[in-house]
Each structure stands twice: as structure tokens, then as C-alpha cells.
Amino acid sequence: MxxxxxPLLELSGVRAAYDGITVLHxxxxxxxxxxxxALLGPNGAGKTTTLNVAAGVHPPSAGRLNLGGRDxxxxxxxxxxxxxxxxxxxxxxxxxxxxxxxxxWMMTFTGRTREEIEDAAYARFPVLGxxxxxxxxxxxxxxxxxxxxxxxxxxxxxxxxxxxxxxxxAPLVVADLYERVxxxxxxxxxxxxxxxxxxxxxxxxxxxxxxARGRIPWQGPPDRSLHAExxxxxxxxxx
Amino acid sequence: MDQFLAFTVVxxxxxxxxxxxxxxxxxxxxxxGVFNFAHGxxxxxxxxxxxxxxVGWEWPVPLALATVLLxxxxxxxxxxxxxxxxxxxxLGEAERLVMTVALLTGCIALARWVWDPNTARPLAPFFADxxxxxxxxxxxxxxxxxxxxxxxxxxxxLWFLLHRTRAGTEMRAxxxxxxLAGLTxxxxxxxxxxxxxxxxQLAAVGGILIAPTVALDAQQxxxxxxxxxxxxxxxxxRSLPLTFLxxxxxxxxxxxxxxxxxxxxxxxxxxxxxxxxxxLLALLAFPHRRLRGRDRRLVRVxxxxxxxxxxxxxxxxxLAVVLVTVLTEDAIISYGAVFSLGVIALSFVPLAGFTGQIxxxxxxxxxIGAVVxxxxxxxxxxxxxxxxxxxxxxxxxxxALPALRLSGVYxxxxxxxxxxxxxxxxxxxxxxxVFGVRVTLFDQGSVPVTGPDLFGWHLTxxxxxxxxxxxxxxxxxxxxxxxRRGRIGRRLIALRDSEAAFATLGGRLLGAKVAVFAxxxxxxxxxxxxxxxxxxxxxxxxxxxxxxxxxxxxxVIGGLGAVGTGLFAGLAFVVPTQLFAELGSWAHDLxxxxxxxxxxxxxxxxxxxxxxxxxxxxxxxxxRTLFRALLGVLALCWLLAATNAVNGGLALxxALxxALSLNARASARRQPAPDIPVEWWGLRRPWKPEDxxxxxRATAAS
Lengths: 239, 702
What we know:
The structure holds two protein chains of two kinds. Chain A has nine helices and ten strands. Chain A is of the alpha/beta class. The longest helix of chain A is centred in the C-terminal third of the chain and has 16 residues, at about 170-185. The radius of gyration of chain A is 17 Å and the shape is globular. Chain B has 30 helices and eight strands. A two-stranded antiparallel ribbon of chain B has the order 1-2. In chain B, strands 3-4 form a two-stranded antiparallel ribbon. In chain B, strands 5-8 form a two-stranded antiparallel sheet. In chain B, helix 1 crosses helix 6, helix 16 runs antiparallel to helix 23 and helix 27 (about 610-620) packs across helix 29. The longest helix of chain B is centred in the N-terminal third of the chain and has 31 residues, at about 1-30. Classes of the chains: A alpha/beta, B mainly alpha.
């Protein structure tokens, strides 16, 4: 995949609704290849919905979704996954009743063989190799998140969408996981991260966008001005 | 010893069939996330179709087999997946359960309708012309050998599919997390289709193999599944090897019981009920994980107003008065069941609607109420009625104790097993003594039931009994509405929403569950006694599991949380049957089929019909002029029909037309747009393009 020049993932004027209640009121967001974009914002801002629209899990009610310059609005999750969009959903993105090996087997949809996937995953996360026959649901939280992240590593995605990777994990584990994410981005993958706890993700982000009440009122480099913006949105003093 | 070997061979061959059917159940459960109550019914339909092709139309056996297994069964599986299961996939576990119960009811009704149950349909075993295989002192028929070989082949093939192919892994992954499976490029729809096709095919294989060894009877074949359920529960609905082990245990146990159980009046029923007993024990003994799925969406429980409940109760009694003045004597007998069955259906409301506990044995408990009243109130002693209610409530409390360990599908299975134990064993017992008290149930026959003595009046005529049932239904509806409005109702709903939260807020699970089971069983017992009075004699068959399923379905269609469900269920159950009755003897099956079809339409109205009707007619009730007009028209129609000035049917049609047109008028009357505060724009009503403009102007002006 990968377009020459121009953004890899582009959302323009995306609106989305649940049961008639509009959650996104026109979101414009672009992620280039090799770029890490952090999408920040308070609860209920529509961050997860934005990712779900980008991955084809939730259909947008208006607006366009471009992937490598191609309009893919309305494509199904499975098709988008095969064309290189990888969403690691909130919570543990693993099949709890399948063994680690079977979970990895589910990652063969892009054409790589089962052995290649397993080798790549165990090389990155040796602990998974020790637990290959264990049911994924019995792994620790960090190990499950590693297994979920292995999908992002082994399926050669063009776009990686991460939803609340840090949820329920110790800060050390989170820092480690985000280091791996930075490695992935250096290989030319466009990474969009949704996170409540801004500090962890801003260490690796190239660009940040603030989402509030279904709109993006601010985006730019993750510097001091962002911190001021963020606290105003989290604490509610923004207009 | 020879005898023992012979029983073992028989047991193992039955075990093989249970294993095939049970593994089909496990397959649909692990891959489609649905516990299919209709699994046995699918096998039954396959057996009937096979009989039709091979015997009825004399097709060659291989062709008939191929048609059933490779064409009809997959087609049925795809139909079930597409039409029934996909619409409720997004709803909760209970809705999926109801779908399969509807399918079970529909299959039985369809089979009875198409294949007259009074004709014998012998089906020859496979390779009947070959002599048996000698195994030392015992012998094994070729049919038994084929059965066992099929079971082994099925076991191997399934294990390979699920654990050694990507398609199988994809199927398991789809159950774990449908959305996530989509993210890994899998097609959950394909996995579901494959699961249902294979599952129904396995049921068909089992049905065709078992049919030659038992009578080809729709109900019996569908319930043979109980043994296969037991096998599947041994495997905790997940593990194929354990399911096979369970099948062997059940098959051998049945064979040895058949062979060695002493012959007396008390025990033959125990043999028939053994699989159900074993199922109950297996359910209680094996720890099982909750069925997973994040789609646990609960339906809201409507809150009736005090005035609304009174109006409803009044209209129930009024309806009864209208019925007794308009209908002929015969019709009053048939329509009397509207109110007594209504009370039985109402018993689902506190239990399943408020508390979320699905019980499939309510009609069996009603049977207990009927039979207790029949014996104790043989001369209409009024005190016997509360006693019947109390005894039924006691049985309900008994059911509640195991229910503490069970929930959802497992509870439904457990109560179904309890119903089977009651109708195959307990209800068939002759009179016996317990601690010096003589207990008589159906006494292997029928029990005469009479009306009660009410303050010196002995109520026996159909008119009196109908009015009594109507008054009691009205009172019961009022009581259930009061329960919903009060503190207890809120606590029960809290229990339904989250048992953990209920317990942490200081609620007592044991007490609450036992109380609600006892309460609803008491209601069912009262309904059963009333139903018995109208029937005049009751038999065990009138209260068995299969007879109870349509009532459960109608209660679900009506809306388990709505108090009006009682009356709705009574009407919906009795009226179509009576209307079709003039068409012929198959009318009963036809109306059951209709009920099943309506149940399958549940996905379109998960909250039930009763709340929807309430919402649709509320406008008319609030519009004073139109409402008075409606009352006037209805009273006129009633008067004309009661005085025989006009034919009753004509009056009914006129009343219906008037009501519908007035309702249309009421909803057409323009309501002033409700004033929605600014902060709710976009939430309580859609966000309009001009809203932004309006808001900025308003802010600029202030």
C-alpha cells in the first residue's frame, strides 16, 4: 500500500450517529505514512467512534474516508482490514477462548503464512512464545495487549489505529508498548492513537488533535500550547 | 453377563446417536453462540422427510439420504441462519433463546400438520436384511454398527474442522468476538452460515439414525433431544470429547435402566425421565461459564400508572361480561380459557419480565395447581383454592433453589428438564403415601375438576366460571402492576440488570429469587386451577412441556414486562384456535404454527406487542370526545349483539372498524409540537440545519 505523497488516511467532514443521536459533527483528520497522530479529548468526545469509522466498523452518516487516495467510504471492516487498516479496539483485542496460537492464526488474512506470523510475533514478544497453547483470556492484561498489538506488527498494515492502549495497564508496561508503536511508525506505518492519558502518548506523537463534542477545535504539534488547550477542554473552560 | 453385554451394545448405539446430535448442538453453540432448543426438532423433520422420500414416495435409499442430508438439511440451516438468527444477533441471549423455542414449536406443529399423527410410519433400520454381527455372546445389528461408525467419523471430522482448519478457527473466533473477527478480515456471516448448515446436518443424521428404533412421532422425536442436551452439558457446551463421554454415560444408563429396573407402577416413568433428571444433575454439578457476548441489551420494563391499571382491570371484567352476554353456551366454554390461560401467562411477567429468569415449566406448575384443586376441592371447598396456590408456590420455590446456580439458557434448560421430569414421571405416578399423607396426582388417568363454592353459590356453569376467571385475572393484573410500581418491583428489575450490583446494594439474592419464583408459581397454580375448572376434567398431557411452549412464546410476543400480557396471551392463544376450529381437526397445529411464526417475528418488536398497542391507543384514550364516541359505539354494538338484533360477528366487525377509524382520527389530530429545551436539541429531536443559525441569533440578541 502507501500512496506517493499526500496523506495515507484521510477523514473529511465525517459525521456519525448512534440511533439518530449525532456524535461526530464533521471531523477532518489526516495521517501521513510514518506519522504518529494522537487523538485526545475528554470522555464522550467521539474518539472511539472516529476510529471505528476509520476502520469500517461504524458506517459514517456523511463525509468521506480516503485510504491512500482511494475513496473507501462505506467499505466493510473485513475489506478494510485486508487492504491494510488495522484497528486494535478498546479493551483487549484478543479472542479470549482461543489459544495464543489460534489468535495468531487469525492474523493470516493478509497472505502471510501461519509460521511467519508466529515467528514474527514471538520474536517481538518472547513471552507469547512461552504461552502459545494457553487460552488468550487467561493471559495477564499486558500480555493480552501484546497479543493484540502483534496483529498490528505481523500483518504489515498501512494504517494502525490504536484505541486506549493504556487501559488498565501499569505505566511501565504502557511506556514499553508505546516504544513498540514508535518502532512500527518508523517502518512507514501511519499510526492514529486515541488516548485519555495524554502524557504517555505525546512522547511519541508527531502531531496531536483535540476532539471535543464531535468536532476537532484544535490540532497542531504536541508542544506547550497543546497542554493549555487540553486542560481547557478537560476542565471545561473552553468556549 | 450375556444380558449385560446385550444392554451395553444397545446403550452404546443409542449413545452414538446422542453423540452425533449433541456434537451438532456443541457446534452451533461454539460457532454461532446459540443454544438451539430446536436442534432435535430439526432432526425430527429430517426423519419425517426421509420417511416421505424413502417410504412414502419409494425413492431409493441412497438418493433419499442424499436429498435430505445434502439438500434439505443445509437449506433449512441457511434458512434458520438468515431468517431467524441474523435479525436477533444484535439482541440479547434471551431473544435468541426465544427464537429457537419458536422454531421448536413451529417444527412440531408443522410436522403434525403435514404428517397426520394418527398414521403409523414404520421406518426400516439400515441393512435390515443382513444378519447381525456376532460379538462373542452378544450380537450387534448392522444398523447399530453403522450408527457407531458414523459417530466416530463425525467426532474426528468435527475435531479436525474446529482445531485444525482456519475456517473452524474463524468460526470459534466469531463467537468470541464478532466485531473483532471482522477486524481480522474474517466474514462472520460466512462462519455463521457454515455453523448452521453443519449443525442442522448433524441433527438430520441423528434424527434419521434414531427414527427406526423409536416411533416416528413429532413430539417424542423432538424431545429425545433431552438426552443429547445432557451429553452436551457434560461437555459444558464446548468440549466435543466430553460431549461424547456424556453421550456414552446417558446411552448406557438408559439401556441399563430399561434392562434392570424392577417392574412396578412407580418406576417405568423414572426410566423415561432419567435423561431429564440426569440433565438437571449435570447442569447443577458442572460449573459453567456464563455465555459470553457483549450484546446484552435489556428491554425496558414499562411502568403502569395506578389509574391505567385500574382501567385495564375494569376492561378485563367488562370484556368478560360482554363475552357471556353475546356468546352462545358452547362458545363460552371454549372462550373461557382466555382468562385462565391469561393468569398462567401473567405468571411469566414478574419472573421473566421483571427478574429476567426464564422458566419453561410454568404450565407444568399450573398442572399441579389444577390437580391439587381437583382433589382437595372436589366438592368446591373454597379453602382448597388458596391451598392449591400455596402448594404450587412451594413447588416454584423448590425450582428456585437450583435456579440460584443457573442463569439464561442454563436456567431455561433446567426448568425444561424439570417439566419433563414432571410429565414423564411424577404426573404418571399412581397414588402414594409420603409420611402418612396420601398423595394423588393424575392417578394415571384423568381428574374431574369442579367450580368453587362461593358464599353458598356453587359456581359450575361456564358463564360463572368465565366471570370468576376474569375477575381473578383482573385482580392478579392489578397485583402485578402494584408489584411493578412498588419497591419490590424495582428491586427485582435491579436484580435482573445486575445480580452483582443487586447483592452489593444489600439485596439478598436467595430470598428475592425464591420469593419471585414462588409468587409466579402461585399465579400459575391459580391459573391452572381456573383452567381445570373450565376443562372439567384434566389429564397430564394438557400440562406437559410442549403444551406450555406456545404460552411462553405468546407471553414473549406480548411483552414479558407488560402487565397487559396476561390478557393478550389469553386472547392470542384462544381466539385463533377457535376461529380455525371450524376448518378441521388440524386447526390446533395451524394456530400453534402461527404462534411460532409470530415468535420468529420477535426481532421487529423486542419489547413486545402489548406496550406497542398501549402506545398506539393511548392517544385515543386521552382524547375525551373521541374516546366517548368510541365507548358509545362499543356499547351500541354490544347492545345489538346481546339482544340478538344483529349477528355477533357483524357487531364485532363493526366495533373493530369503528375503533380503528377513531384511533386513526385521534393520531391524525395535530398535536402541538412539544417544547424541547435548547440543550436537548440533537438528542430528543434530530439536529436541524437551521438550528445553528437560530442559536447564534439568540446568543447575539441576549
